[in-house]
Amino acid sequence: MNLAAATNESLAEMSNVLVYSAMAVYTLAFLAHIAEWVLGSRSKVGRTAAALTTPAAPKVRVRTAGQGGGTAVLDKPKVVTRSASGSRDVPDGPGAAGGDQKGDLYGRIAVSLTTLAFLVEAAAVVARALSVQRAPWGNMYEFSLTFSTVAVGAYLAFLVAGKNVRWMGLLLVTTVLLDLGVATTWLYTDSDQLVPALHSYWLWIHVSTAIFCGAVFYLGAVATLLYLFRDAYENKLASGGTPSGFARSVLERLPAAATLDKFAYRVNAAVFPLWTFTIIAGAIWAGDAWGRYWGWDAKEVWSFITWVAYAAYLHARATAGWKGRKAAYVALIAFACWLFNYYGVNIFVNSLHSYAGV
Amino acid sequence: MSDTDTTERDMAEAGEQLSTAPREDLTTGGGPTLGVIGWIRWFWRQLTSMRVALILLFLLSLGAIPGSLIPQNSVDDLKVRTFKEQHEVLAPIYDRLQLFDVYSSVWFSAIYILLFVSLIGCIVPRSRQFAGQLRGRPPAAPMRLTRLPAYTTWRTEAAPEEVREAALAMLRKRRFRAHAVDDAVAAEKGYLREVGNLVFHIALIVMLVAFAMGQLFKSEGGKLIIEGGGFANTLTQYDDFSSGSLFSTDELAPFSFTLNRFTGTYETGGPQRGTPRTFEADVTYSQGGGVRKRSVIRVNEPLEIGGSKVYLISHGYAPVVTVKDGKGVTVFRGAVPLLPIDNNITSTGVIKVMDGYRDKSGKKVQLGFPAFFVPTYAGKGQGQMFSQFPGLAFPALNLSAYQGDLRVDGGLPQNVYQLDTSKMKPFKDASGQIFKKTLIPGETMTLPQGAGSITFEKEIKEWASFKIAQQPGNGLALAGAIAAIAGLAGSLFIQRRRVWVRAVRGDASTGGLTVVEMAGLGRSESAKLPEELAELAATLHSVAPTAPEADEADERAEQ
Ligand code: HEM
């Protein structure tokens, strides 16, 4: 055995240890999120119900300018926003902690732990890449690993950008744990080199964008799913019904349906051009590797289906009678297509794509 | 009530023509009443509506599914044949439904053709409408600006005309299309969104045309070449060939090439032992009988000659064997390509001696040697005949022998890698078993009863198989694809939005000050809209600052 191979193996070993460490930290983050939700349930805020039962036109006030001694320094006029006509004017929920201080503390701890776990997982990806001396996207194990890393990274990036996304923390961490669990138990593949067919810079371009799109589409799907629940809850309140205890405790703390819907749309719409690019990059690569840029290989077919499904979603949002819940269902179907393209095609369908053998 | 009604109408007018999406008429339930022309009109309107476009998009993705689950002729016809053998009931039904040719089936074509007719029917009026919008002007400010998604107001000592003028100048400077109507300034920006959207949809059509061209005029075929062998691009030289319906053979680019050497290298140690590292085909080619040039074809790096591309598809070994008859006369000598069956290139095939061989009685018979080749042999008695490594470390060739009629002359297409034993008899050894032997290079297997011999020569050649493809329209497809992405980005990332600034002299309650109101409306809700409005307001505010007295009055009122 040569020396290089030995270092590679120890790097691969290190990557595995890092993955397990990341899972441990994600588990702690998961528990902290649970604590956040549990503690937050003690404070009954009831903002949504109040907003829906006493519909008041938003009061528009003249912004008073700040006074500063002799020379008045004038503030900017304040902009009042309101939802477009047709949608409910419901304020966003207070978040998982529900205004509870201890809950908020746990929420912050959860985010810190998630950040730590993300760094550890990212290190695992890098170690894996170094051990195989190529892009770490040669098989489903590596794909899953990078996928969850990017999803968490995107989530943290939203947090850093000051976007209100902490509400998805629990669901995200849960699914990341599931993804890593599946990856380490069923999909694990020893660190290995690529066959010549994958030796191409298109691997970096095509696969990295594919992973990125999937991870961000996933965040969109989470928001869409929560939108459906939250929307049902708001509908029930608006029509005078009493939602279940679960709904009142959990859904009440989520952002307003309109906010979730907007977030999901923005995320999906922003990624759609990149997904288009991913498919085109794949086609160019296929043209070089297999002598045809489009051959209706199973993976190509499902990329196409996913693309058309997202196009249908964007169209649905611009079509009367399809906005809102129906469009949300289309978005979920589109993401299901993406998932099937990844898991389903690799496992159930014979495809030219080289990690088809899992 | 009527108040909200007028407000709604007011709002609808403010948002009018903020996109070129076709108008949705939810109320028209029934069909038309105007006879044939009316029906045609109605049908056309339906086809070009967003709803039908949506349904067609759905159908397109649904229709694509079966092709990914059922074997396709265009992808792997061998699999289709196996499937047909295994499913006697289903296969004819699938056949009838064209499920083995989904992507060229009548129904799949119908869906996408309808979709593209719908698309064209959509683009034309939308472009016209957009041209109209470019000539028109943003609509006047709605009565109640407070109802808009983003709103701000303040009071100032500046005169209303002054404020409006400043607003107009500011908005124009920021490339809004702005004009003053009545007591307000109306402005709009982001027309590129519509341009992007139209470009995207047109690019889809361009791509479809490019695909169609490619399909109709393409040609592709495969050729297996043993080291030292060559290929000239004419129909007869192909092992297999297929082409689009408008392709004619004289469109085949005139070129030829020779495979000088094929090199495959593999990881020799560590846990990745045996993993391929490089595959290279060293070729000499010439175009139309011109100068001969050397080149290397790799996976992912096809050779482009005169509009055709030559791809390296697969490779394997071709052991060189010599067959002699009972009298010692050489009846066959050559490299026989064998097909790999695993990653370590364990290969199988048949060495066929068609003519020249006579048995002891002088009768013409044919010989067939089913062959099993491993580039790296585990050693005698080491389990089965499977290769341990893809490189030529310890090659061995396992042969058995048959004589009789190969049935190659019957005109039936025959797989060259398989032996049809229906008219052949195996040579047997002394104990009555099929005669079989494993040879290493240089060894000779002597057939029983002086029937001759076969020698596994020391020279072992490699073969490579190539795909030669010619497909016009690729450049057009790429141009369409790039335009599509650019258009899409424009369409999704550019906000089309309107801003109104109203400045009027307030009544006594405001102390006669000017009331400035600003509001923004976007095509879709956006976080940027309020931000932009705030910025605009701040700019305008520096020209027309909040009146200090109003502040105090306000504060007093609040206490
Ligand atoms: C080939 C199939 C089609 C695809 C893949 C496709 C894709 C898209 C995409 C991705 C968008 C999103 C851009 C946005 O939200 O602004 C869009 C918008 C749009 N599409 Fe299509 N489209 C197709 C066919 C059609 C057809 C047939 C029509 C006409 C009925 C149409 C009309 C529109 C309109 C009006 C918009 C703008 C919607 C808006 O302003 O929000 N499209 N299309």
UniProtKB/TrEMBL annotation, chain A:
GO biological process: cytochrome complex assembly
Signal peptide: none
Keyword ATP-binding included in the entry's annotation: no
Major location (coarse): membrane
Locations listed in the record: Membrane
Residues annotated as domain Cytochrome c assembly protein: 137-353
Pfam families (alphabetical): Cytochrom_C_asm
Superkingdom, natural source: Bacteria
Gene Ontology MF term list: heme binding
Segments passing through the bilayer: 17-39, 109-131, 143-162, 169-189, 201-229, 263-286, 301-320, 327-345
Xref: InterPro entries: Cyt_c_assembly, Cyt_c_biogenesis_CcsA, Cyt_c_biogenesis_CcsA/CcmC
Keywords of the record: Cytochrome c-type biogenesis, Membrane, Transmembrane, Transmembrane helix
GO cellular component: plasma membrane
Bilayer topology annotation: Multi-pass membrane protein
Protein name listed in UniProt: C-type cytochrome biogenesis protein CcsB
UniProtKB/TrEMBL annotation, chain B:
Basic and acidic residues composition bias: residue spans: 1-12
InterPro entries (UniProt xref): Cyt_c_bgen_Ccs1/CcsB/ResB (IPR023494), ResB-like_domain (IPR007816)
Annotated compartments: Membrane
GO cellular component: membrane
ResB-like domain segment(s): 50-533
Keyword Plastid: no
PANTHER family named among the record's database cross-references: CYTOCHROME C BIOGENESIS PROTEIN CCS1, CHLOROPLASTIC
Name this polypeptide is given: Cytochrome c biosynthesis protein
Native organism taxonomy: Bacteria, Bacillati, Actinomycetota, Actinomycetes, Kitasatosporales
